[in-house]
Amino acid sequence: MAMQEFEEQILVAAPVTLKTWVRYEYDVFVIMNQGEIDCFLNFLYGRNEAIQFEMERLLDYDGCHPVEHNKSVVKMLWSGAGNLCSTKENLKEERKHLEKVFVDNGYPKSVIKGWTTTQGKRKRAADTRQAATRRVTLPYVKGASEVAARLLRKHGGEVVHKPANTLHGGLTKMKDTEEEEDKPGVVYNIGCGN
């Protein structure tokens, strides 16, 4: 069964509402309600047992993301809650929920507390004042990138990691490749039948 045909069938018959469905070759990016994930996966497995699905969580601390990116998730969600909640009660509830989500996704308590305490705020302010003057951007390779960052930090440098592959990069390069003989200005040899 072709992936496109399978995709068309499941999108029509899905027992849950999918907010977003984007496929690139055999990778699918889906946004849906968290409580409906198991129901949807069971539905997919029931349609074709030969197809296996693997779920990746963007918040997973042990995934292949630089530590700085994981810390920035905590920073972004923590400060975002402060900007969006209208009352102190709502803010307290939201931050309690965030702490649980971080723990459930494998974040060490030291990373969580680094952004959730006043001590963490003072440390961040000091780190900002001592920001490195030499910045290097490197692709992220789990294990090696942390060592490179540590070594450069010892010499006053700062490493900013970027992902080697991105969803945007994969989705925007869907141009067909040209055959050699169709390219302009290409010299090629046509064998004679002698």
The N- and C-terminal alpha carbons lie at a distance of: 47 Å
> What helical percentage do the residues reach?
40-55%
- Using only C-alpha atoms, the radius of gyration works out to 24 Å
The oligomeric state is: single chain
In terms of per-residue confidence, which ranges show pLDDT below 50 for 5 or more consecutive residues? none
What does this structure look like?
With 194 residues, the protein is of the alpha+beta class. It has 3 domains: 3-47, no CATH class; 68-130; 132-165, no CATH class. Helix content is 48%, strand content 13%. It has helices spanning 3-13, 37-47, 67-84, 88-104, 109-116, 118-129, 144-154, 167-172, and strands spanning 18-24, 27-32, 134-139, 157-162. It has a two-stranded antiparallel sheet. The chain has a two-stranded parallel sheet with strand order 3-4. A hairpin with a 2-residue loop joins strand 1 (18-24) and strand 2 (27-32). The longest helix is centred in the middle third of the chain and has 18 residues, at 67-84. The two termini are 47 Å apart.
Task: Break the fold down into its secondary structure elements and pairings.
Layout: H1 3-13, E1 18-24, E2 27-32, H2 37-47, H3 67-84, H4 88-104, H5 109-116, H6 118-129, E3 134-139, H7 144-154, E4 157-162, H8 167-172
Parallel strand pairs: 3-4
Antiparallel strand pairs: 1-2
